[in-house]
Amino acid sequence: MSAFIRQDGGPILTRNDLPDIPPAFVDATSVFNPAAAVVGGRTLLMLRIQSRGRETGLLRAWSDDGIVFAPENELVAVRGLEKIPGTLLHLYDPRLTWVEGRLLCVLAADTDAGCRLVTTTVDVHGDLDVIGVCDQPDVRNGVLFPERFRGHYLRLDRPNAVPLAGGPTTGDTIMLSKSEDLVAWHSVGPVFSGRPSAWDELIGAGPPPIKTYAGWLLVYHGVATHFAGCNIYQAGAALLDLVDPTRLIARTRRNILEPRESWELVGQVPNVVFPSGMTADRHDADGFVPDDAILRLYYGAADTCIGLATTTVGDLVRACQDD
User: Fold this and answer.
1) What are the residues facing 212 on neighbouring strands?
2) How many domains, the chain?
């Protein structure tokens, strides 16, 4: 049984909810894989949108209740793109994290020399300023921890080291990296890897981890590749040690959310649930998210629209610990 319960009524955002933004994003093709953060008591989603020419843009959407969102009518501005080496092809899949009072964003940048991770600040308007670009040539799924460890920022990421037949390289191991300045990053070591012939053969971090009394709680995506038809993207969860996040405490044996609804099964990329944004309704005085806090998970569905599912910290922690 899934730890998450889907929001009634189907996807919360589809291409029909998007404004026309000339010249490229008129009658846009899709909206998916959003980042999420609570800003001034409102929920911000940073959306990945795609044009009919397969161009990628970022768009903000705001909500007072975390359920009904109103997209803005202008794209997110990203300043400092000249820092990205090579030819930039796509900038996509943002991940938002509050780190010690500052809202930061990590993006994936497809270039002619591989995928780079780009770290930015988020200004008061929700636009982005590039701080640094990871010098590792092909890495994805970067998410920041919400606090520093002994002066270092920490990031989970996923090197693209596994070639797919007839497709791009991908990855099966989540790594931990550290940085003093968000510019130069150094590998700390592996956190956990995919499980052959299981639902999570290939993996990558989803939303940024949250701090709970049981450990750092991470929702991640897993891909089952052992089906003749196509890959199946699902969601799972893991608990990492609060002091040493390379130490895996527990992990869901089964997925906690999988494609079942028609809009998750059919779209640009069929059979996809891709967790990318998550908010908690509260933190306690010590900075932990308590067991009874409500989590809202925002996910891309079939690379076409956006779904919402909810759970509590306690339910998700128990799902990690179940045999």
Assistant:
1) 215
2) 1
pLDDT in tens, 179-227: 999 999 999 999 999 999 999 999 999 999 999 999 999 999 999 987 7
As given in the structure block, the two tokens for residue 204 are 């990558």
Extract the tokens encoding 152. Answer: 């270092």
- For the stretch 49-76, pLDDT in tens is 999 999 999 999 999 999 999 999 999 9
- Kindly state whether residue 3 falls inside one of the protein's structural domains: no
Helix-, strand-, coil-residue percentages of the chain, each rounded to 5: 5, 50, 40
Token digits of residue 34: 């959003």
For residues 174 and 164, the answer to whether their CB atoms sit within 8 Å is no
CA angle 110, 114, 116 (to 5 degrees): 60
Domain coverage including residue 65: 12-321
Q: What does the DSSP assignment read for 119-166? A: EEEE-TTS-EEEEEE--SSSEEEEEE-SS-BTTBEEEEEEE--EEPTT
228: domain CATH number is 2.115.10.20
Q: How many helices (H) and strands (E) does the chain have?
A: 2, 24
Tell me whether residue 284 is in a domain: yes
Q: Is the pTM of this model over 0.85?
A: yes
Asked if residue 200 lies in contact with residue 218, where contact means CB atoms within 8 angstroms, the answer is no
